[in-house]
Amino acid sequence: MRRVHPGVAAARGSTGGTGEAASAGGASPAGTPPAATGGPSASSAAAGRPTARAGAEERALTSVAAGERYRGAERRGPEATRPEELPRLWHVTLSVSGEDADLRELRRALEQLAHDHPFLLTSRYAVDHAEIRYWEEARDLHDAAAVALRLWGEHRQTAGLPPWEIVGLEVIDRQTYHQRIAEGYGPPPATPVGVHPY
Fold first, then answer.
1. 8 Å CB contact between 143 and 58
2. What is the distance between the alpha carbons of residues 69 and 130, in angstroms, rounded to a whole number?
3. What is the DSSP letter of 34?
4. What is the rounded distance in angstroms from the CA atom of residue 178 to the CA atom of residue 187?
5. N- to C-terminal Cα distance for the chain?
6. C-alpha triplet 176, 173, 119: angle, nearest 5°
7. Whole-angstrom Cα distance, residue 141 to residue 120?
8. How far apart are CA 113 and CA 121, in angstroms?
9. In angstroms, how far is CA 184 from the centroid of its own chain?
10. Which residue among 4, 28, 40, 69 has its CA within the 20 to 30 Å range from the CA of 139?
11. What pLDDT, in 10s, does the model give residues 7-61?
């Protein structure tokens, strides 16, 4: 009777053998080196290299110190106000006109408006028109103009203003106002402050 060595049979024809059996025979199928067969040892070696490299990269990234700009933004938080969102001062000139009004009543109404609106500089008036100049604090020109267009109507009842309509509006920022004054073509200085006839 012919005896078959278990190790030899496994190397020649067994399909259920593992990478260890192939290594024990000293050869791999089709002459492929053991490292290329995708066995456990090859997988472990391949998996180990990127893991070690990734770990080294993570350590390198976490060791980088944050810059001062980043730390300042972190201290201020996400709700920090940007410079362009801060309120600014705007010089407003509002012109109104309408039917003739009693000058004494008109003066009294403009004085009440000046009391209700603390930033008001000066008001000039005549029997059928008036001009109001004041400083408005607003985020941008659109907000300042929107407040100016509502000013006469909102104070009409409380101050007793005549039912005149707005016929002119100029809104300029503080820098432009002072630049005009310096160059000699700006509005006349608001002195004396208060309510005065033309």
1. no
2. 52
3. G
4. 10
5. 137
6. 125
7. 18
8. 11
9. 38
10. 69
11. 444 444 444 444 443 444 444 444 444 444 444 444 444 444 555 455 545 554 4
Residue owning tokens 């024809």: 13
pTM flag (> 0.70): no
Label the pairing between strands 129-138 and 88-97: antiparallel
The 8-class DSSP code of residue 21 comes to: H
Number of H helices, E strands in the chain: 8, 5
Instruction: Retrieve residue 173's tokens.
Output: 């920022």
Q: Maximum Cα–Cα distance for the chain, whole Å?
A: 140
Q: Nearest-CA neighbor of 107 among 8, 198, 7?
A: 198
Distance, CA of 89 to CA of 175 (rounded, Å) = 9
- Report whether 130 contacts 103 (CB < 8 A): no
Q: Would you say 137 and 129 are in contact if contact means Cβ atoms under 8 Å apart?
A: no
CA within 13 Å, CB half, 76: 11
Beta bridge partners of 136: 90
In this structure, of 30-34, 138-142, 144-148, the range with the lowest mean pLDDT score is: 30-34
Structure tokens, 100: 């003739």
